[in-house]
Each structure stands twice: as structure tokens, then as C-alpha cells.
Amino acid sequence: MNHSSLQIIETHAHIYDETYLEDRDEMLEKAFSSGVSQIWMPNCASETIGGMMALAEKYPNQCFPMMGLHPCYVKEDFEKELAIVEDWLNKYKFIAIGEIGMDLYWDKTFVKQQEEAFLYQCQLAKKHNLWIDIHSRNAFLETVNLIEKNADPNLKGIFHCFTGTLEEAQKAIELDFLLGIGGVVTFKNGGLDKILPHIDLISIVLETDAPYLAPVPYRGKRNEPSYLSIIAQKVADLMQIPVEKVIEQSTQNALNLCQ
Ligand SMILES: [Zn+2]
Description:
The protein has eight helices and eight strands; from the N terminus they run E-H-E-H-E-H-E-H-E-H-E-H-E-E-H-H. It has 259 residues and is an alpha/beta fold.
């Protein structure tokens, strides 16, 4: 299906990743001609800023950077990393703070530092009047607790790569957050088939998290933003509505965040 008349916003893709070294421009052109009108780029750490900003400069009307320190990159030197984040926020207009949050899947060594980094960046979001793109893995409750107890009540954003339960989805929505739906929606046992039929379309945005989490039939391979149409179609099937409606509303939801 050709969505070229529709504008899809890719809300989360690491297109600066080295896996695109050989064919980055080609990969991006493919995305743009498949209907992707904007690609939002989450930052990871100071080492990813250079490549991300180069793309923002090369594609100023299509590729928009976020600024933040990813929880998996929170280590001993996190205060130095946060100073770099803050410095960039003072000199460039980013689309959001991201990706930030809690990750208790791989390593819990720096859980305290992760909390501190997340809360600090929530404050930066308030100061710069930006929304936040949340990475939460095996840490939904912890993340929600931090938001509820400490963050500005006006804080809003996206739970990127949402894969939780229906109760968790409802909690995120109650906190004024959107659910970022990606390739997991196409996975057998991904769990989103049990959630999406009960969620209002105004609460979701589309993303790939490229180069990770490619949708079926590319599962396990390199992901890229042109696969968003596969994700949109699967969301439409699960919600039993036309794919055009999914694209139109999720794009509107994304744009509303940035107002
Ligand atoms: Zn990501």
C-alpha cells in the first residue's frame, strides 16, 4: 500500500546509528517516499550527539533531534553527561528531552543514578518547556512513581516502545502520556493485541525504534523508518479501523505534543 499522500511521523528512530553507515541517505529517501514526513531522533549519550546533529543539519525539515541521556548510558560519569545535555539544551531548540527513563533489564548497578538522572532531566524538560520521550524497561512502576511523586504535573510525553499491560497503558494515559507503538505490535505474543482494541486512537503514536525491533517479516533484521507503514497497518487491523485513520490521528497526536 502506498501512503505517499499521508504524512507519517516517525517518533523514535536512531537513524544516526552505525548500521546505516553504507546506505543512510538511501534508507532515509526510502522512508520519505513511503510517506514518512518527519523522523524524531532520540539521543543516547554524548557519543551519539555528533551523528544526530549532522542529520538534523542535513535534513532540517524532516529530521528532528531530542536531547537526553539514555538510562543504559547512566554510569559513574553521569553528572558529566548531564552537564553536556544541559549545555546543548541551552544552545539549540530540540523537539523533546529523550530518551530518558529507567532500565532495570540489563544492569541494576546504577539504579540510584538512573533515578537521579531521570528526575534531573524531567526538571530540564520543565525549564525548557519540552515533553519527554521515556525509555522504561522492566521498570514501569519505578518510572511512574518518579513521575507521580517528583515531576511537574504538566509534564507530558511518550512511553516509547510501550509493551506493558492494559492497566499500565491506562496509567500512562492517565498521566497524560502517549503510547509509542512499534514493531512489537507485529510479534506473536507481543501482547499489544490485548491492549490496542481497548485504547483510544488519540493515545498512540507510531515509531520503529530503528535499528532495533524490526516488524515481521523483518524481525531480527535491521529496522528502518520505511517499515512504519507495516506497523500502522497492524495497528489498524487490531483496532479494526482503516489504516489512513491510524496514520492521520497518530500524526496529529504527535504534532499536538509539540505545541
Ligand atoms: Zn531508542
